Amino acid sequence: MFSYFSTYEFKHLHISALTHFSMKNPIPSRLKIFNGHLITPSQVLKDGVLVVENGKITSVGTQNIEVPDAVEIDAAGQYISPGFIDIHVHGGGGCDFMDGDVAAFLQIAQLHARFGTTSMVPTTLTSTREHLLHTLDVYEKAKAQNTQGADFLGIHLEGPYFAMSQRGAQDSRYIRNPDPAEYLEILAYSKSIVRWSVAPELDGALDMAHHLRQHRVLPAFAHTEATYDDIVRGFEHGYTLATHLYSAMLGVTRRDAMRYAGAVEAAFLIENMDVEIIADGVHLPAPLLQLVYNIKGPDRTALITDAMRAAGTEVTESILGAQQNGLKVIVEDGVAKLPDRTAFAGSIATTDRLVRTMLQNTNIPLQEVIKMMTATPARIMSVGTRKGALAVGYDADLVVFDQNIKVSKTIVGGKIVYSGIN
């Protein structure tokens, strides 16, 4: 179980080191964080010390070593964790990645960094081909300018190749079957696509998976009416990740009095299938969060926000998708819903809420919850050799938080991008 430490006031940077933070050189060449509880891959080290040099972790331990010319941060008894990695996020802070402008991308990256996210995979929604290509263009520009928020790991295309019956809040006007001429053009257009969510039972979806793998794009199954057998075939062709498990997919169904296993059961039974879950406590209640963990474990389960633009705001009405032509939604009970309340329309969670929800509603140890928010999503997105762990040689993507998972520092590549209490 999660063990609590007494609350400490987070101390400011040492005055003598402030010169490292000039506008000309905002990233300190050396950074030392001490007096914290380091969440490492193997254990939680009390009174830990972590050293960063040129954006990389160079030392992890319990000896309070001298680091000449380092900016020093006293963690004041709080936790020091790998930065949170969100591999499925649509928006936040009043913006959506489908808004089609660089400012929206940057605002979302900065908003989520306040809550501990150090890396994210910006995610699209079902749209026209033209809108999708424009979003890919904007991503490239935003990535080049993103210096104050969570790092972009590539873009995730969610749709438009979905089952109409499982569309959820995806816009039905744009849902269609995989078209090789279309998706091959899109794959050739941008090298920044790292993941594509598709309903694997659709005509052409299995062939599409082969093309995705050839382009080093991760095929994931989503918004699907696939049965168990469909998912098994999809897995054999490359669909190795379940997009927001339970949401927009079938479980056990009955046909002519016979029961059939669905996509949910297939995700559980296929040993090497990865799953992601929206752990906001609303999309999945506590018993299902515990069930996923008990079956898949922390090495196969990634926590995601699936956050839309209302995340980090206090609004009661919002828009899912592009501001100009998106879907109107309401925000209540800690989640976005369609106005008629027939379905959820995305989450308003931030990554700190995911960690907090898992700790408060399950019996999963802190270290394993953190793995589901860091190392596991890093491995799924093929960045696990440089992100997702407090280990020597890894990117200095770090988050400092208290016993209530309130974030006080977020550091991306050795640079402090957020400092304060939300």
Instruction: Please tell me the CATH architecture of the largest domain by its name.
Output: Alpha-Beta Barrel
Number of strand elements: 25
The major beta sheet can be summarized as: 8 strands, mixed
- Backbone structural class: alpha/beta
Compute the separation of the termini in Å: 25 Å
- The name CATH uses for the topology of the largest domain is TIM Barrel
Please identify which CATH superfamily of the largest domain we are dealing with. Metal-dependent hydrolases
Number of domains: 2
The total of helices stands at: 10
Provide tags for this entry:
single chain, 422 residues, alpha/beta, Urease, subunit C, domain 1, TIM Barrel, 2 domains, six-stranded parallel beta sheet, 25 strands, disordered N terminus
Write up what this structure looks like:
- With 422 residues, this protein is α/β, with parallel strands linked by helices.
- The chain is built from 10 helices and 25 strands.
- The strands form 6 sheets. Strands 1, 2, 3, 4, 5, 23, 24 and 25 form an 8-stranded mixed sheet that branches. Strands 11-12-13-14-17-18 form a 6-stranded parallel sheet. A 4-stranded antiparallel sheet has the order 19-20-21-22, with no helix packed on it.
- The N terminus is likely disordered.
- The protein folds into 2 domains: 100 residues, Urease, subunit C, domain 1; 297 residues, TIM Barrel.
Entry summary:
By secondary structure, the chain is α/β, with parallel strands linked by helices. The chain has helices spanning about 100-115, 130-145, 180-190, 205-215, 230-235, 265-270, 285-295, 350-360, 365-375, 375-380; strands at about 30-40, 45-55, 55-60, 70-75, 80, 85-90, 90, 95, 115-120, 150, 155-160, 195-200, 220, 240, 255, 260, 275-280, 300-305, 315-320, 325-330, 335, 345, 400, 405-410, 415-420.
